[in-house]
């Protein structure tokens, strides 16, 4: 099997792909699709996934010091490649990636930028890959961990209403809220594409979402004419969120 094969319906058309997949549909709406990626240890699966990566991705793999980070990189990146090839109708050899000013990647086919938007997030043994036909897109996943100074961390990354809600929460509810808010903020930053050159303390998630609703329209204070749709997609296994830029005149996605 080579990195130049094309993915077609569970087998590599030019090779010997087994058809084993470590991803599955997780959420879909309109032209948007989010896949869940299973990142549990599996040496055979990891070997297959590694064979899909290009030279740059393998070089990055070699720089990770921990096996868990290598596994996350390999399985998420291979799943991204396979599914992009399917959506774009190209071979793996024809697929490459470029980066915008702040490092956000985009796909290219034979050197030509694609209109398909994507974003990847992983934490622990779970990953998410989001696709949309066009527009800015951000997704974030956070496996919740207890025993942290949530109020202390929150004081540097959250704004007043967010800090007040976090301070009022106790026990497991505090951890749940902390990661919920963080996944929402990171999804917005990733959709905007500036990375953490934008301090998350400079903006606040919509009040409706802080008070418990799952989705709302959002505007960054420094970009009031740009509209985003923000969704809390958390579930018992992890906190998660999706953000996408709304086109001019496009109604909200409620």
Walk me through what this model shows.
With 254 residues, the chain is α+β, with helices and mostly antiparallel strands. The protein folds into 2 domains: 113 residues, Ribosomal Protein L22, Chain A, CATH 3.90.470.20; 106 residues, Alpha-Beta Complex (Ribosomal Protein L22, Chain A). It is 33% helix and 26% strand. It contains 7 helices and 13 strands. Helix 2 packs antiparallel against helix 3, helix 4 runs antiparallel to helix 5 and helix 5 packs antiparallel against helix 6. It is globular, with a radius of gyration of 19 Å.
Summarize this structure as a short list of keywords or feature phrases.
Ribosomal Protein L22, Chain A; alpha+beta; four-stranded antiparallel beta sheet; 13 strands; 254 residues
| Major sheet size, sense and barrel closure | 4 strands, antiparallel
- How far is the first residue's CA from the last residue's CA? 44 Å
- Overall geometric form: globular
Show unreliable segments: 6-17
The structural domain count equals 2
Helix content: 25-40%
What is the mean pLDDT?
90
* SS field, number of helical segments: 7
Order of helices and strands: EEEEHHHEEEEEEHHHHEEE
Beta fraction:
25-35%
Radius of gyration: 19 Å
Layout: helices, strands, pairs:
Blueprint: E1 7-8, E2 11-12, E3 23-29, E4 32-38, H1 43-52, H2 55-63, H3 67-88, E5 95-99, E6 105-109, E7 112-113, E8 117-123, E9 126-132, E10 137-142, H4 150-157, H5 160-168, H6 172-192, H7 207-210, E11 215-218, E12 228-232, E13 239-245
Antiparallel strand pairs: 1-2, 3-4, 4-9, 5-6, 6-7, 8-9, 10-13, 11-12, 12-13
Helix pairs in contact: 1-3, 2-3, 4-5, 5-6
